[in-house]
């Protein structure tokens, strides 16, 4: 019996060149990823004063987080790690980041621009976003299911999830499965191992 899979790959090599084989193998062996939900429509203003909506992320894989610039606890570490993700995919126009401020009254475009410069935001598709408070909290808690709230009894006066969400080219939140076959849903923005998993899964989607 002829090995038709081998013949098929051989034909691809003849037509497209040897470089095509690794791409085919990677595509076949790429792990399945869970679909967590679809990101609802949003419209906010970025650090340059430009209105950014879902349409600006269409066709791109992006990572989303919720933070605020005066955060005294987890935000600095989250954004240091986000910079590492930026650097991993630097120069790829099909990758982006969305950082939504949960303290929009303070985090004006000017404040966000200074914060972005401080941390080394360097890719054009990393938008630090501010806007209507209720819309941001609705997006966080219901759209992404990433907790965010104001709490005057804690340091910094706000509390939020330290997790990152991975979104595919069609606006669907995606994640890998754990060892028991359950979707992890989100990636711990403070954990080195989760950061490596996130990088791998971004590459998978790209």
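-> sequence recovered:
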């Amino acid at each position: 019996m002829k090995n038709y899979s081998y013949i098929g790959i051989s034909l691809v090599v003849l037509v497209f060149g040897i470089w095509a084989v690794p791409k085919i193998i990677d595509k076949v062996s790429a792990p399945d990823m869970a679909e967590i939900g679809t990101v609802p429509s949003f419209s906010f203003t970025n650090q340059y004063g430009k209105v950014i909506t879902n349409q600006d992320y269409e066709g791109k894989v992006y990572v989303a987080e919720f933070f605020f610039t005066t955060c005294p606890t987890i935000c600095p570490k989250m954004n240091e790690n986000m910079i590492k993700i930026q650097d991993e995919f630097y120069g790829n126009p099909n990758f982006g980041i969305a950082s939504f401020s949960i303290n929009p009254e303070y985090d004006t475009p000017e404040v966000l621009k200074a914060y972005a410069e401080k941390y080394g935001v360097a890719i054009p598709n990393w938008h630090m976003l501010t806007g209507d408070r209720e819309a941001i909290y609705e997006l966080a808690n219901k759209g992404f299911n990433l907790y965010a709230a104001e709490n005057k009894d804690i340091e910094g006066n706000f509390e939020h999830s330290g997790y990152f969400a991975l979104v595919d080219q069609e606006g669907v939140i995606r994640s890998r499965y754990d060892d028991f076959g359950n979707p992890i849903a989100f990636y711990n923005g403070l954990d080195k191992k989760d950061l490596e998993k996130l990088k791998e899964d971004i590459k998978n989607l790209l």
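DSSP finds six helices and eleven strands in the chain.
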